[in-house]
Structure formats: C-alpha cells, structure tokens
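Sample intake sheet
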Amino acid sequence: MEIWSDVVCPWCHIGKRRFEAALARFPHRDAVDVRWRAFELDPGARSAPAGEPVRPTDYAERLARKYGTSVPGAQQMIDTMTQQAAAEGLDFRFDRAVRANTFDAHQVIHLAGERGLQDAVEERLLTAYFSEGEAVGDREVLVRLAAEAGLDADEVRAALADQRHAGAVRADEAEASALGISGVPFFVVDRRYGVNGAQPAEALLQVLERAWADRAPLIPVAGGGDGAACGPDGCTV
C-alpha cells in the first residue's frame, strides 16, 4: 500500500485514521507494507518560523484566497472538516495552524522510512500541525518532532542540511503526476488499484480484500498428477 499524502492536508489525517480502521479489520493486515509518498499541496508556500503569532482567522483567510470564496464560506469548510475529524477521534485546531512549506517534512518522512519509523513520523507531523500549532516548516521544529517519534536528532538535522532526500521527494511527486494523482490522500494498492480521497473505512477494507484475493495462489480445480505438462526439466506426455 502506497499512500500519497501531505502533512498539512486535513483529509490526509482523516484518511489515515479511516485506513487504520480498515486495516485493523483486515485479516491479513500483518502482510500489508505501508509506504508514505510525498505530495506538496502548495510547493510555493513560505514557512512561518516557530513562535510567529498566529491569528485565529489566518487559516480561514488562506483557504478563502485559495478557493476564491469568502472567509465565512471558508470557515464553514473548516467546521465541516473539524466535525469529520472529531468523528475519527482527531482534535483539529485550525485556529493554531502555522503556515508551512512541507518539502523538508517529506524529506524527514523519507529518512524515517529508512529507519522503519515512517508511520510514527507521519503521525507525529500530522498531529503537530493540526492539533498542536507546531511550525512543521521550521527545520529545528522538524528535528524535535522527528526525535519525539524515534529518529536521531543529529541524523535528521544533517539530512536536512545536505538535502539528501530531496531527490526522493521529487521522484514521489513525479510519480504521482505520472499516475494521474492530482489530490491527496491517494491510496495505491499493488500498483493495480487506486483510491482517491478519505474514503470510509468500509470502502478501503473492500479494496484491501479485493487486492488480496487477486494475489491469492491459484487453486487447482481439476486433474491430478498424470496430466501432460511442461516444466523446467522438460515435458511429460
């Protein structure tokens, strides 16, 4: 399972919870390998430094500009997302959200993948942004959050300094474009099935079950050991 996502995407956090609920009900969940892929919702965004004051209406104003709507209209969208998040056990605080460019965050997530901590880091960054008002575009904040999720702080700091995972992030984004992914979350199973958006857990479970059935070994339904066939050592008659 590959999941294209961004850590400042509210539906990505909601979708993660719904996927986790689906996976918990999937009998073969221990055989599922989950990989988080990079997608930047706003590659040109400018990160705010840690400690910069945030007005409660900042997020609504940014949303209104992006979608060409009024601030009250944007606030209605925020209220809907907050309610949907609460239904999944998430506490969204858009009034605390700090403007962030997420390119460095995706690099940290790639590093976490090499250390077997990708899901933990993804979760930590999503929670930090949506619930805690952390500046996930600030490198020192990223270092601290990654360390809280289990990564070595010095390694994270060095990886960001030399941008060693920048190419991997760009490759994810190019791959998303090649696959026709224009929004996130986007779930890809076995490179055969694509699921767009934060679908209900039941729908995600159905996709997992279908993909597993397609991977199941062939079950012989006729014939015994005497049928004519060819193998690596020749043919029988």
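Comment: Residues 232-237 have pLDDT under 50 and may be disordered. The first strand starts at residue 2 and ends at 5.
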